[in-house]
Amino acid sequence: SKYVYDFAEGNKDLKDLLGGKGANLAEMTNLGLPVPPGFTITTEACQAYLTTGREPDGLAAQIEAHLESLEREMGRRLGDPADPLLVSVRSGAKFSMPGMMETVLNVGLNDRSVIGLSTQAGGNDRFAWDSYRRLIQMFGKTVCEVPGEEFEHALDDAKHAKGTRNDLDLDADDLRALVDAYKKIFAKHTGREFPQEPREQLDLAIRAVFDSWNAERAILYRRQERIPADLGTAVNVVSMVFGNLGPDSGTGVAFTRDPGSGAQGIYGDYLANAQGEDVVAGIRNTVPLQELEQLDKTSYDQLLGIMARLEEHYKDLCDIEFTIERGKLWMLQTRVGKRTAAAAFVIAGQLVDEGLIDLDEALHRVNGAQLAQLMFPRFQLDHDVPPVARGIGASPGAASGKVVFTSARAVELAAEGESVILVRRETNPDDLNGMIAAKGILTSRGGKTSHAAVVARGMGKTCVSGADELEVNVPAKKFTVGGHTVGEGDVVSIDGTTGKVYLGEVPVMPSEVVQYFEGSLDPEHIDNPLVRAVHRIMTHADGARRLRVRTNADTGADAARARRFGAEGIGLCRTEHMFLGDRRELVERLILAGGGRERDEALAALLPLQRADFVEIFREMDGLPVTVRLIDPPLHEFLPPLEQLAVNVAVAQERGEDVAKEEALLSAVRRMHEENPMLGLRGVRLGLVIPGLFAMQVRAIAEAAVAVARDGGTACPEIMVPLVGAVQELETVRAEAEKIIAEVVGDSGVDVLIGTMIEVPRAALTAGQIAEAAEFFSFGTNDLTQMGWGFSRDDVEGAFFWRYLELGIFGISPFESIDADGVGRLVRIAAEEGRAARPGLKLGVCGEHGGDPDSVHFFHEVGLDYVSCSPFRVPVARLEAGRAAI
Ligand code: PEP
Ligand code: MG
């Protein structure tokens, strides 16, 4: 097979084979841009090497042939003592893995060719010896695993001896001595001399790049980013160009637009007389790219021309790396550049205006996660306020509050109405209460999948993790950072999007995108490019999507807001929420009622309250479907806690009080106590056990609908029965409900549908039978996930998910994004068998997954009619449903 491609043989679509860097170098070469000649060794060669432990047959000969033709083209031979060709050896996988794998520069230098390099550079000895010491350093570290600090110490010693801190003050003699020192370090650690043979250097460097695919940090990065482990990396062998040959040389990076805001213009940094790694290492400060115009106008103009050309060609924001060698511009890399959420929308809109892409493509270029980010409030920073530390943006949002170091203190202060930020080295399951009480969470350890990060995201709470500049001392109740000491009660502000930490309070401003969705910003008349772009792309998504988007809401206010956000109905109105607060006592009476009269009284008291609830919601959702779910309480949420009750009774008895009533309550609560309430007397089971409960609700729904219709409105109720596992359960409820509906509705013209949730695995597997008794299904993917996996949705996220994520057992919590293979399969089976039994069966989903981008694509593909999600997720679901459809 063909393992080596000349740059002229590849193109940008060959990323699988040539990696991102190689494919784009090839593309630029074929565009006629100034790319230093070279070739790419394929990912297939790497895969073969990694599986067999040796280079595949034929690879060495192909490298030889491509090297020879490179040498011919350059008119120089690799490592030739008189006039050497030098090459860089660079990794480049299909997906960018920044800093994860290896690069070796200046391959081909040795004790003899270093002299030739000096001659080539016009007698520049300093440059030649500096290049040589860089080779030994990089080669030693990456190819032979010599500890990098040893080289750095030797370099520091050399500077110290010279009385300077600047590399540039070391002259040729100093650097020659440094090369000797480096060679000794190399020999000490490897037991051999630094290889002088250029081809051996090249082969070892290539092999090291292959091996770096399986470096520990690369494995970890892939696991977190869900990059398959078997892709392998390509290796690019590129003839060296030098940005460190004097003031007429230099190196830089640039973006074709601002990756922060999307604004058009020239964004980049330049460093004269330097090589790429100097920029990364921050040895000297870069200057804005615009200053290159003064330094070298020809190269600057050429660069701008190339940037325009690349944008037009890639039809997107590109980022580039370039080097100028003695006034000659070279392109070292380009790729479609990363950008912020705001820039993604703005740029997509601009590219449509420029005629480079159409609206379908614009919709592809943005996503729901970005839109969700734009909906969080942000810090209002008038000028560049420096953060005091920077960690990982683990869960987005902006939060200010008083610092606390323990969960207990967080709970205390929050109860007093204070905003608190819980600061820990890392959190553990014991911190859950504190995390719930806090406005935000800040840790000095741990990444995006640490306990703190996972739990905070699950709660939608702002979190910065891994801010490792913080020295957190929990016993002393303080942390130190950059010379500041912050104690309990001091105020800090954290930005969970950028990971930045600020001392003191930073004012928070609402998101313009939310203001737009709420209807207070008119996209046609404001000068905000982001809002205009969001409006345009959302409008297109709405036109394209096949999935309807409903909301989960159980109050008129939530329903109204969701409707402004574009909800096309309510997919889940959880009625148990209507029984909390003052009404809890009525429910308690109902559940514990011995028999007829008591129960009827409790129900009669609840009926008008329920009816009023539904009238309010039907009015807000006038003309749109409203799925009302009959009560589904895990019983323990409605009864007084057993222990508390037992203590109260004992205390009262002690005091000689009359406790007959309390004792009756206690024994009833004991009788109904459940070890696993989530698997207990819930949903339809409760409806079947407590006569009259569901009937009261059905009556309230029907009466409310009729009342709204009488006022000239249109109510479209859909009654949904929860937790059904067998068709007989549904049939029983249905028979009773139909009688009541017929009686209430009469000839009012109101139409009431009856359907069921599919949230118990057995329901999914018997969906064909259940569909006989249901006019619609709504998938309750929260319970379906809980029961499908057999883990408690209320307990496990904080308890062990962080470990599962770390191990890669799943890439994301299955409560957040649907487990397509397992739980999703149940959805698929139920959808197919349900529709087969009852063509036209309406299908929706109302678990949390309804607002998750990947899950929305899954539900689209399965062919559901709608997703239903919390009001704030409605725009995200609309966007993703549109993206799924194009
Ligand atoms: C579900 O289980 O997915 C669902 C929507 O119901 P709940 O979350 O109320 O159990
Ligand atoms: Mg449920």
TrEMBL record:
One of its GO terms (molecular function) is ATP binding. Residues 536-882 form the PEP-utilising enzyme C-terminal domain. Pfam families: PEP-utilizers (PF00391), PEP-utilizers_C (PF02896), PPDK_N (PF01326). Substrate binds at residues 574, 629, 759, 780-783. InterPro entries: ATP_grasp_subdomain_1, PEP-util_enz_mobile_dom, PEP_util_AS, PEP_util_C, Phosphohistidine_dom_sf, PPDK_AMP/ATP-bd, Pyruvate_phosphate_dikinase, Pyrv/PenolPyrv_kinase-like_dom. Residues 60-285, 290-342 form the Pyruvate phosphate dikinase AMP/ATP-binding domain. The active site is at 451 (tele-phosphohistidine intermediate), 846 (proton donor). Mg(2+) binds at residues 759, 783. Keywords: ATP-binding, Kinase, Magnesium, Metal-binding, Nucleotide-binding, Pyruvate, Transferase. It catalyses: pyruvate + phosphate + ATP = phosphoenolpyruvate + AMP + diphosphate + H(+). Belongs to the PEP-utilizing enzyme family. This is Pyruvate, phosphate dikinase. The lineage of its organism: Bacteria, Bacillati, Actinomycetota, Actinomycetes, Micromonosporales.
